[in-house]
Amino acid sequence: MKYQSQKVAYAYFLVAMILFAVQVSGGLLAGWIYVQPNFLSELLPFNVIRMLHTNSLIVWLLLGFFGAAYFLVPEESERELHSPMLAYVQLAILVLGTAGVVVTYVFDLFAGNWLLGKEGREFIEQPVWVKLGIVVAALIFLYNITMTVLKGRKTAITNVLLLGLWGLVLLFLFAFYNPENLALDKMFWWYIVHLWVEGTWELVMASILAFLLLKLTGVDREVIEKWLYIIVATALFSGILGTGHHYYWIGTPGYWQWIGSVFSSLEIIPFFAMMSFSFVMVWKGKRDHPNKAALLWALGASTVAFFGAGVWGFLHTLHGVNYYTHGTQITAAHGHLAFYGAYVSVNLAIITYAMPILKGRDPYNQVLNMASFWLMTGGMSFMTFVLTFAGTVQTHMQRVLGENFMDVQEGLGLFYIMRWGAGAAVVLGAILFIYAQLAPRREVISRSASEEA
Amino acid sequence: MTHSPAPVPAHADQDHILDTLPGDLMIWVLIVSELLVFGAGLLAFLGMRIMDPIAFAHDQDSLNRVAGAVNTIILISSGYLAARAVHSAQHMRKWLAGSMVLGVAFLIVKWMEYADKARHGIGIESSDFFTFYYLLTGFHAMHVLAGLVIFALMMRWPNPRNLEGGVMFWHMVDLVWVLLFPIIYLVR
Fold first, then answer.
1. pLDDT tens per residue, chain A (453 residues)?
2. Class level of CATH domain B25-186
3. Residue A93, number of CB atoms within 10 A of its CB
4. Most buried residue among A45, A233, A264, B139 by CB atoms closer than 10 A?
5. Using CB atoms, which residue from B13, B36, B44 is nearest to A266?
6. Which of B26, B125, B131 is the closest to A258 by Cβ?
7. Whether A104 contacts A118, CB under 8 Å
């Protein structure tokens, strides 16, 4: 660890991993309800579990991003963080808010209260007090990181990271606008949900990848920066108007069908660029970094993101196709592989890279970590295939033949059982990953060492 | 990004073909992206036309083909003036100003076309043809406007490399119009 204040990242990664465990366990529960629909229906209804599953995902990914920023910005800026104390205050606020959300959702407290109760929307449903907390925490974060960057060395990586994080925070302000009109509500929530994952988060992902590849492959910074700018340009070019692919059927004017189809089709380009970037850098690389697990996660992230976000996204983004597939299991297949590939994996990549350094046991060979990569990635891929088949069958029976929703769901039972199995593999992989990060493993497992023994 | 010429590469394999492109690499990324978008839009237009050729032909007849042709000449002439600006540093502002005047003229003609359509109660939702007409020519007109802003910035802060990039953008806007005009206004 070059700078003492990078230690802040450790606390962020720790909380992120705890929430990661909560998130995948929630997913496993929700997956079982597809198999056995009345499971827990009185105690913990499906809609609450789903909220926990998606909310904890978003929060842990954000915590991971914050941690990544606190880890890589001092190194890039070549100076200590502006204020480690503020970073801990920010984390405490976020943890309090998260706990508040969980308790409010599970016990449905303060229903209808404008400040304390959940807002009852499908997304951005957090109670207002939590949203205010998020904004305060985000402002602390931006202040802390921006001050550090302004006082230190400015690199393309920190510039892009800051652009992404500032955009992310400013867009969240739309969460406070909750119009009565449901069409408007949906229109504005995509300003957050879409412009995060298909805009600002891509910038964060690209800069984290760039940092990792810089460290792991030793390719010249100039080369890395050129790729980074291309990725950023194509991501924003396609992603901003690509929001239109959420405006097909919500009551917005018909021209959105064409704007959304054309621009969102191009969203595959930045993901293809990120994948090419990772592999080309590794091929060009002249450094043999001992942290092979981090490299595996970085390559895995960009590859699975290309398939999950890029290919599976394109699969149903054209409005002529989406007319039939909208809201079927095709969407679930895409959502799972895209979030896992792009944002879960890039977080686990930076955690894998940073943890040995933060814990002072660098270098070491993370065999368990690599096993967890294959377990999680294999599980998630299988889940995606299963859901894609389920979605295809569902689309045909429900949307083409016009059969009843619940009748079709009955017919998908086998798929849901297989999906649950795949989910169980992902949960095991996640637990294995967390164990591999936290359990002390000092030894370096290498071929020569095992041969000597 | 640097404004000076690329530094001598440390390794031979870094002397990439991309480094030999005129202008900044990023302007090429933008140009290719724009061509993809307009290309996809035109393909979609042609695809929709195949499905309903009679309605498309009917709507197309209500377009002002003379205005479209005049605008084509205006924009190509504007592109010529912009190209001259790159090659004569002393008169750069004069050439650019001429190019901008023609750019404004293009927008005025376009505005008159839109106003005429509006008078007849035609809008973006009137039919599939007009959805494409407004989306494609509207996006294009926004790029003309953006080009004018870019030219204004370059006249204020002249820099040969930026000038090259800006004029390349303008040629891209030209090229897109030269594709839009025949496909939307003329092809039967």
1. 899 999 999 999 999 999 999 999 999 999 999 999 999 999 999 999 999 999 999 999 999 999 999 999 999 999 999 999 999 999 999 999 999 999 999 998 898 899 999 888 888 899 999 999 999 999 999 999 999 999 999 999 999 999 999 999 999 999 999 999 999 999 999 999 999 999 999 999 999 999 999 999 999 999 999 999 999 999 999 999 999 999 999 999 999 999 999 999 999 999 999 999 999 999 999 888 989 999 999 999 999 999 999 999 999 999 999 999 999 999 999 999 999 999 999 999 999 999 999 988 766 668 899 999 999 999 999 999 999 999 999 999 999 999 999 999 999 999 999 999 999 999 999 999 999 998 865 555 555 544 444
2. mainly alpha
3. 20
4. A264
5. B36
6. B131
7. yes
* Chain A residues within an 8 Å CB radius of B132: 258
Q: Which chain B residues are within 8 Å of A239, Cβ to Cβ?
A: none
Q: Kindly list the domain boundaries of chain B, sorted by start residue.
A: 25-186
What is the spatial distance between Cα B39 and Cα B180, in angstroms, rounded to a whole number? 9
Contacts of B79 (CB under 8 A, 6+ apart): B99, B170, B171, B174
The ipTM is 0.90
Q: Which homologous superfamily does the CATH classification assign to the domain defined by A4-440?
A: Cytochrome c oxidase-like, subunit I domain (1.20.210.10)
Cα–Cα distance measured from residue A368 to residue A348, given in angstroms and rounded to the nearest whole number: 13
Nearest to B147 by CA among B178, B107, B108: B107
Verify whether the Cβ–Cβ distance B132 to A258 is below 8 Å: yes
Residue B155 near residue B96 (C-beta atoms within 8 A): yes
Distance CA B80, CA A5 (A): 57
Please give the DSSP secondary-structure letter assigned to residue A80. Answer: -
- B115 lies within 8 A of chain A by CB: no
From the list A220, A255, A263, which residue is nearest B131 (CB)? A255
Give the closest-approach CA distance of A158 to chain B in angstroms.
Answer: 14
Q: Which of 9-48 (B) contact A at CB < 8 A?
A: 10, 13-14, 25-26, 29-30, 33, 36-37, 40-41, 44
CB contact under 8 A, A223 and B131: no
Every domain of chain A and the residues it spans: 4-440
- Which residue is closest to A257 within chain B, CA to CA? B131
Query: Comparing C-alpha atoms, which of A170, A232, A240, A233 is closest to residue A207?
Result: A232
The Cα-based distances of A371 to A293, A300, A368, A430, B176 in angstroms read 9, 13, 5, 10, 51
Cα A144 to Cα A118, A203, A254: the distances in Å are 30, 19, 44
Q: Give the phi and the psi of residue A168 in degrees, each rounded to 5.
A: -55, -50
Q: How far is B130 from chain A (nearest CA, A)?
A: 10
Q: Are A274 and A206 in contact (CB under 8 A)?
A: yes
B135 touches chain A (CB under 8 A): yes
State which H helix or E strand residue A363 sits in. Answer: none
DSSP H helical ranges for A78-176: 84-107, 128-151, 156-172
Phi-psi region for residue B123, left (φ > 0), alpha (ψ -120 to 50) or beta?
Answer: beta
Task: Identify which of A63, A54, A84, A77 has the alpha carbon closest to the alpha carbon of residue A17.
Answer: A63
User: Cβ B131–A230 below 8 Å, yes or no?
Assistant: no
A271 C-beta neighbours (distance < 10 Å), count: 31
Q: Give the CA radius of gyration of chain B.
A: 19
List the beta strands (DSSP E) in A261-345.
none
Q: Indicate yes or no: CB of B25 within 8 angstroms of CB of A226.
A: yes
**3-state SS class at A357:** helix
